[in-house]
Amino acid sequence: MPAKGTDVFLCRLDDLADGASRGFDPGRTGQDTVLLVRRGATIHGWRDACPHHGGTPMAWRKDAYLNAARDRIVCAAHGAQFDIETGVCTLGPCLGQRLQPVELTVTAAGNINIRLEGEEET
Ligand code: FES
Q1: Tell me: the pLDDT tens digits for 19-48?
Q2: In terms of residue numbers, what domain contains 25?
Q3: What Pfam families does the annotation carry (predicted)?
């Protein structure tokens, strides 16, 4: 497992199409714990943990985190919807709660990295 405080490569910017979402397991836990959504040149990163039920993983299948309009993150468990930019739940059982952001960097070479500071030990 990577040490806390280290940057871990997730993917290249070019690997994430505009409007797409993708899950990652940077802590090598065996399931995706982080999700990215690309909107134009901006990458939004959130923990894959729904605030409704103690951090339930949200994708309905691998990398499927968005609604049909691709303008909200959706939790497959009970249908909560979250603003992609703020992480705030805008519809569903955890209205007003929010996703937890992750710290990302995009290098000049186009690599998207995550800072593992604050990752829980597993
Ligand atoms: S666990 Fe996500 S909406 Fe219920």
Answers
A1: 999 999 999 999 999 999 999 989 999 999
A2: 19-102
A3: Rieske
